[in-house]
């Protein structure tokens, strides 16, 4: 991580609709990194609005993502990110050398109630906490 003093690390979360998993991941990373990481999220076929069950599940933890709007995935977003994380939904991202790519196998919360979304939310939170510990070493 020789670039950490030059600029803060950036992460892009991608899922098809950019309405559930990627939005929850972005909200967690923004909140838990306290601005130490630049966060983006996008989808290859964005929905018209964020999944209401995902919004409710995050609100239970004090994170408001009700104003978020699904965004379309662009080559620029990938190019500008250090880490690109797809959310187990088969999205293909443009590949650029020097980027870190991960695929998180996560159940799709689309069409599910908040009771079904909570375990997905909690899985995402644990993964985000691990990611923060890798990208922002202790004491930073």
What's the structural blueprint in terms of helices and strands?
Layout: E1 10-14, H1 21-32, E2 38-42, H2 52-59, H3 75-79, E3 83-86, E4 100-103, H4 114-135
Parallel strand pairs: 1-2, 1-3, 3-4
Helix pairs in contact: 1-4, 2-4
Explain how this protein is built.
- It is built from four helices and four strands.
- By secondary structure, it is an alpha/beta fold.
- A four-stranded parallel beta sheet has the order 2-1-3-4, covered by helices on one side.
- The radius of gyration is 14 Å and the shape is globular.
Distinctive features:
140 residues, alpha/beta, four-stranded parallel β-sheet, 34% helix
Helix and strand run? EHEHHEEH
Number of helices: 4
Tell me which oligomeric state these chains represent.
single chain
Q: Write down the overall mean pLDDT.
A: 90
Spatial ordering of strands, largest sheet: 2-1-3-4
Point out poorly predicted stretches: 1-5
Terminal CA distance: 13 Å
Indicate the percent of residues in helices: 25-40%
Q: Kindly provide the radius of gyration, computed on alpha-carbon positions and rounded to a whole number of angstroms.
A: 14 Å
Question: Beta-sheet strand percentage?
Answer: 5-15%
**Biggest sheet, open or closed, and with what strands and sense?**
4 strands, parallel
Shape: globular
């Amino acid at each position: 991580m020789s670039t950490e003093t030059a600029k803060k690390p950036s992460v892009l979360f991608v899922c098809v609709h950019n309405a559930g998993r990627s939005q929850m991941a972005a909200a967690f990373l923004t909140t838990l990194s306290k601005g130490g990481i630049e966060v983006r999220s996008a989808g290859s076929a964005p929905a018209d609005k964020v999944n209401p069950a995902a919004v409710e599940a995050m609100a239970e933890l004090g994170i408001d993502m009700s104003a978020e709007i699904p965004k379309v995935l662009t080559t620029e977003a990938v190019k500008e990110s250090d880490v690109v994380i797809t959310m187990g939904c088969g999205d293909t991202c443009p590949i650029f050398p020097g980027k870190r790519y991960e695929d998180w196998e996560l159940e799709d919360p689309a069409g599910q109630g908040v009771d079904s979304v909570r375990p997905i939310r909690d899985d995402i939170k644990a993964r985000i906490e691990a990611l923060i510990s890798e990208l922002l070493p202790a004491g930073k």
